[in-house]
């Protein structure tokens, strides 16, 4: 299937989905008009022409529809047993980015005006969504290339693609943290506990961060409990461990990072992420879990400029009815840990 046919099908699917959600809405004709204009703009941009005229609508609805088109297009390409070649995929994704940029020609001033207004928080969430969309494209392309679907790659290219994937994943996670924090930061995607494998989560975390660890010459150690299959909230647990492991790698220059799930009794598991880094200074401990904290001076120790990751981790751990704790020392490194009550899964 050609990438343009995939695009046409994606546009049709978005329109059909919108009709289903807002059936008989008076805005349906407006949505259809926007979709036709966006599809034409993407094709024009791919051909090197101006993607949108000055009279074309530049609204939140238009940007939302463009995001839905991109998402549906990538999903169709992912499912296609004979996907289009990488060059044509890059062409259409690049065209979508050009259209997106054209939708907001005066974005800087518009951003400043809205950020200081009553809907400033909503704007931050919109920006986070806008960041996450192209990052999804990068993740998809890096994964496609790594799997050799566009031809063979050598060992150096495979390592570089791994680094690209890890970096894009980190940025995408940061955008997700912004969105989650705006929503409270403690939402459990899997509201009801479900069976899962602790080993699978630990190995998934290691696979994502492995390119970063190898680039720094660090080992990533795993320790799984004897009784592996449990009932709990795997999505939240995975997110917490991944955030903590990424932070640990960032501030460790030699040695290792250990991600462990230690069995305390039949139901309680202690999860921990330990590094052999420099430890956390006492003055940084006071605001460690606060979002949007500021460094007191340039170069001062901080887990991130915004501090969102640890804040989200603490909120998610509390949502799972536990407490995120930390112990640190100059010659020891840093260890974040928390306990969860996870009953054994009956069918394992």
Note down, in words, how this protein is organized.
By secondary structure, the chain is α+β, with helices and mostly antiparallel strands. It folds into two domains: 3-182, no CATH class; 194-341, Heat Shock Protein 90 (2-Layer Sandwich), CATH 3.30.565. Helices cover 55% and strands 12% of the residues. The chain has helices spanning 3-21, 28-46, 60-79, 86-103, 107-115, 120-146, 155-182, 198-216, 234-250, 282-285, 308-319, and strands at 194-197, 219-223, 229-232, 256-263, 268-275, 325-329, 333-341. Strands 2-4-5-7-6 form a five-stranded mixed beta sheet. Strands 1-3 form a two-stranded antiparallel sheet. A hairpin with a 3-residue loop joins strand 6 and strand 7 (333-341). It is globular and about 60 Å long. It starts with a helix and ends in a 7-residue tail after the last strand.
Structural topology:
Blueprint: H1 3-21, H2 28-46, H3 60-79, H4 86-103, H5 107-115, H6 120-146, H7 155-182, E1 194-197, H8 198-216, E2 219-223, E3 229-232, H9 234-250, E4 256-263, E5 268-275, H10 282-285, H11 308-319, E6 325-329, E7 333-341
Mean pLDDT: 79
Span of the ends, CA to CA = 42 Å
**Alpha-beta content class:** alpha+beta
Number of strand segments:
7
Fraction of residues in helices? Answer: 55-70%
What proportion of the residues form beta strands (DSSP E)?
5-15%
Uncertain regions spanning at least 5 consecutive residues: 22-26, 298-307
